[in-house]
């Protein structure tokens, strides 16, 4: 059983932390932070121009998800969503899971939002805006949609507290219909002395084509040569079979990348094989999540993603009702 509730956020004040570089540095003091006075959900909007020149706009909701026999209780700390620490590359040290719902509830409550209460743009031109959703009827609509509609949880979840059979964390709720704009292809590079030989042996194990088929397929590149493998009913199953083929000897390492151009460049060497893959279909992604198969990182799957530095956790001070 799971429950979904609103909360008061401890978040970064983007009027003080005005650049993505400052946000990623993560050196936050009290002067950089805001504790919201009123409990609610937070609508998180990501907007940018696509490569084809079309506007992309996705809105999700941030709230507290509890999973257990009767739901957990307590206050979600900083580490449950995103601590102020970042790794040396400026990437989030941890990311919250995504809860995918098969309703249009976010669209329904969007007119009730207040703000933006935070806004910042990243280095790739994505505008990130946070709005407060505090209208009681709108809060109830979101809560019921997440608790009652079919949903799938994708991404890392916190470990269970000692002696507990429940956990609680902030999640980003996204409508399933918005996922096609966010799911990106993840390609592979296989490095090692046996990579070229494994490429030559593909035809003995798989239905390899010498010309690209009309249906969805994997494209393998090695030293100017190409091989095409139809994915059949499952992209992830086809990718897994090729990964196993290259990895069985232990001599070949694998790297994931979303840069198809890098595949073209690196696979020009005889001991490197590149594999370009289609994006994982949304239905297959949700089915995999419900079966417990999760991506290694959300960064290898979704783009853009919320900047989890903006919302650090749940405020611990007295709320507006208690002060009154």
Explain this structure:
The protein is an alpha+beta fold. The chain folds into 2 domains: 203 residues, no CATH class; 92 residues. The chain is 22% helix and 30% strand. The chain has 10 helices and 16 strands. The strands form 3 sheets. Strands 1, 4, 5, 6, 7, 8, 9 and 10 form an 8-stranded mixed sheet that branches. The protein is elongated. The two termini are 34 Å apart.
Name some characteristics of this structure.
324 residues; 2 domains; eight-stranded mixed β-sheet; 16 strands; 30% strand
Task: Calculate Rg over CA atoms.
Answer: 22 Å
Q: Separation of termini?
A: 34 Å
* Outline: elongated
Order of SSEs, N→C? EEHEEEHEHEEHEEEHHEEHEHEHEH
Itemize the secondary structure elements and their pairings.
Blueprint: E1 2-5, E2 9-12, H1 20-25, E3 33-35, E4 41-49, E5 55-67, H2 78-81, E6 98-101, H3 105-109, E7 114-121, E8 127-133, H4 136-148, E9 151-154, E10 167-175, E11 187-191, H5 195-200, H6 202-205, E12 217-222, E13 225-230, H7 235-247, E14 253-257, H8 260-266, E15 272-276, H9 282-290, E16 311-314, H10 320-323
Parallel strand pairs: 6-10
Antiparallel strand pairs: 1-5, 2-3, 2-16, 4-5, 4-8, 5-10, 6-9, 7-8, 11-14, 11-15, 12-13, 12-15
